[in-house]
Specification:
59% helix; alpha/beta; 373 residues; 12% strand; 2 domains; elongated; single chain; Pyruvate Kinase, Chain: A, domain 1; 7 strands
């Protein structure tokens, strides 16, 4: 028979854990509201920078110019095929745990993007992620988002040509035999492959995860996952631009978690550099107004591109912060509910054991009295 004292001790322990998870749930809920407001405030600015970029690139259509950050799709494919530089990935994750599957989903998406081979280079290269279209369509809807108590949303996987070409160029087989590399896609300690990839990590969890697997982390940031700051995004952008100018890297991919609602956060990846002129020209054809730029369009582009890059990184950090806090809020809420359910089962078990003990004592008394007769 179970010991009543051990059951009482277990009930007290579960109740103490329930108090902790409930407090963490309330803290995450208040921080989530602040993170969501910051994301909502940043959305119009991100959308406007995208519109400006489309206008500038559409006005440069037909002009002969060379820019280290701007390439045509054919130039991009040629640079990937030559494989002269490295591939840089910016991974944004969390500093702390207890956020459900948030961190593991980011790592899973990162490994899929970095390690798996792409099958269609031309159609897979992305320059504008869906989050910016989402900004415009759902700005008002996001305001009414109410934190809910259930999560476990289906996570999407996204494969880009950047990761595929990185894997193909890292091995002697090259892009022609990319399918043969799928069987070894999960070999994290492949020295030849790791040498061709560099990482910038945001979040202590990301730094620990990738450093243990032998990746070259050139810069890491910690303590800012829940409260992003624009100066860190600008620091990342300056580092990326400097290494891209020198030719040390030929492709930059941003991996983060896109926030859609309090119960839906999807890991996403987007190519930051180089900028593909074809995509912006096609997007700028619908813009009716034409502007006259002073001193000229190319000078405006030179000054605007670094700011645009920093804005996109900062927007991704805000998305990741809102996703992390909503995931932690849902995880702690579920933990609190599970603790309450467990306390109820333990109380029922305690009462059954106590009743069985009382019944057994009564039987012993009755048996003793009968024996005396």
């Amino acid at each position: 028979m179970a010991n009543l004292q051990n059951i009482r001790r277990r009930i007290r322990s579960v109740k103490n854990i329930q108090k902790i998870t409930n407090a963490m749930d309330m803290i995450a809920r208040s921080r989530f509201n602040a993170a969501r407001d910051a994301l909502l405030s940043n959305m119009p600015y991100v959308s406007k920078t995208k519109e400006i970029m489309k206008r500038v690139m559409s006005q440069m259509r037909g002009q002969e110019y060379e820019h280290p950050f701007v390439k045509t799709r054919e130039d991009l494919i040629a640079s990937h095929t030559n494989g002269d530089g490295k591939f840089l990935f910016i991974v944004i994750a969390a500093d702390k745990g207890l956020a459900g599957s948030f961190t593991s989903n980011v790592f899973k998406s990162a490994h899929d993007t970095i390690e798996y081979d792409g099958t269609d280079i031309i159609n897979s290269v992305e320059n504008e992620d869906d989050s910016e279209n989402f900004h415009k369509k759902n700005f008002d809807a996001l305001k009414d988002v109410v934190p809910m108590r259930s999560s476990n949303s289906k996570q999407g996987k996204q494969y880009t040509a950047t990761g595929g070409m990185a894997r193909a160029n890292a091995h002697p087989s090259g892009a022609a035999n990319s399918g043969a590399n799928l069987s070894v896609a999960r070999e994290y300690h492949d020295a030849d492959y790791v040498d061709g990839v560099e990482l910038i990590t945001v979040g202590r969890k990301a730094t620990t995860h990738f450093s243990q697997r032998g990746y070259n982390i050139i810069k890491s940031f910690s303590g800012i996952s829940e409260r992003p700051n624009y100066k860190y995004a600008r620091e990342i952008a300056d580092l990326v631009l400097e290494r891209f100018k020198t030719g040390e890297i030929i492709d930059v991919t941003l991996i983060y978690t896109q926030f859609k609602s309090a119960i839906s956060c999807i890991p996403s990846s987007v190519t930051l550099l180089p900028i593909i002129t074809d995509d912006f020209v096609q997007g700028g054809e619908n813009l009716k107004e034409e502007y006259i730029y002073e001193p000229d369009v190319v000078s405006i582009l030179n000054d605007f591109l670094p700011h645009r890059l920093a804005t996109r990184i900062y927007g991704a950090m805000l998305h990741s912060a809102a996703s992390e806090l909503s995931s932690r809020m849902n995880a702690m809420s579920n933990a609190t509910d599970n603790a309450q359910e467990l306390v109820g089962r333990l109380n029922l078990f305690y009462n059954k054991v106590r009743q069985a003990g009382i019944t057994n004592e009564i039987n012993e008394i009755v048996g003793g009295a009968n024996a005396l007769e």
